[in-house]
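EI: anyone free to look at a 498-residue chain?
SC: sure, send it
EI:
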Amino acid sequence: MSVVPFRFTPPGRSPADIFLELWLEAADWTSAQSTHSETPKQAFRDAVDRALTLRNIAEASAALDALRKSIGLSPVQWRGRVLAIMDRIDRAFLAIHPRTLNLAPTDAANIAVQPWLKRLQAWRAHSQGWYAENAGHRLVARGPLTRREREPAAASADSLLDRFAALTVVNRTFADYRTGRISVAQRVYDTSVAYGVDSAPQFGEEKIAFIPVMQTRDEVVLTSTTRHDRAFVQCSPSPEVDAAQRIHDALSAEREIAIAIAPEFSVTSAQATQLKRLLRTSARKLASLVVAGSGETDEQEEGLPWNEAKVLSSTGKTLWAQRKLWPAAVRQKRAIEWGLPDPADGMVYENTASGRELLVVDIDDLGRCVILICQDLVNRPLAPEVVRQFQPDWVISPILDGGLSIGRWAHAAAFAMSYDSRTRFLISCCTGLMAPPRIPLKAPHCGLVVGPCDGDADDEGRLVAGADAAGTPQRAVVTWRNGGPEWTRTALVEWDIA
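SC: here you go
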């Protein structure tokens, strides 16, 4: 007997589609037009609520469409109705938002959820992240998933992105003059045995482990080559470095790690496979999520490998892989410091292909995650716009540099993006290329954690922590909200470095 595979049929036109359509209309308004809209009477708002209590998805959508009629309304009145309908739809979706289920599970259990809303909740998981879409946009759960959202007044001005708590609209692609057109792929993982994904051990107080892997200069292999009359470089750990074992042993020495991160170019494809085996056969869970640094892929494009970071579950399953979008280059001074050929007036370029897709991954009990490998962290406007639209819980950035210091480029890039998000930035670097800091700050770190600029009831604003490697193998652990001495606050000051 043949088995017919289960097919989850699309929900058809739904309140999610209506919200998406109204959002795109409201996005064309000026800020003044939005703030000067006329709030509709209570009877209209009650009618919207009644439409949303209908059980059938088609009936609820038809009732909302009937309320969208603008006949006899002034533009000010019509804009007010649009915002009122969106507000009521957004409130309905709060019942199924991961943030509600994470932060207020008891309240969520007592909320009556209509069948059409349950169907869209299931569709989000099936569709890999969205409730509705058109050719250029998607309607998604507003981030972050495990922390409070930005408040409507966060921008100190009217902002469509900050108006709603449960829903937001994001681009499907981003055009960037540096990287070309980048498409966004989304995925959703629940906490299950099938995926090997676990909740953070200490919810809201996550422990982050940074494992530098390449600990000394002789463990970093930089191979220079010339192509098309330009200098290129490839990076990998030396053959003596067992990256998989070092990561495994470092995590085995710790407890209750939520996210573990290795640096850029520290884990080859073969070592990533070995790490998967070690995680799978470990006697206990070593981390909820392991970002296995990055390394060159076996697959190539026009003779070039990709620089790819693999993200593994606690049981060693590959959840996703992110390829670097914008290969970096090393300028003359740093090239000479690292023993590369002098590029004279040019640069030494990273010898890898460019990725064309950015993954935004929702792990509903851990948060929305985005991987930005090294140079991708400073790819403006792409990186800030992705953070602004998707509001990820975590931006994870494996880098290759002479260490991390508070005040240098990685910290500055993360802090700049923290103005428009509630994102936590996690940046990991090896210790094998560490150089003295160029400005009078602390010595370079192997890890850096940067929090949101604005504080709330749970977190202070502008928090930053540097992580220094210690132990054998080297590792550093930072715990969010623990008030430890490693935490300080980002301060904008003028340095006299003459």
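EI: The chain has 14 helices and 23 strands.
SC: 👍
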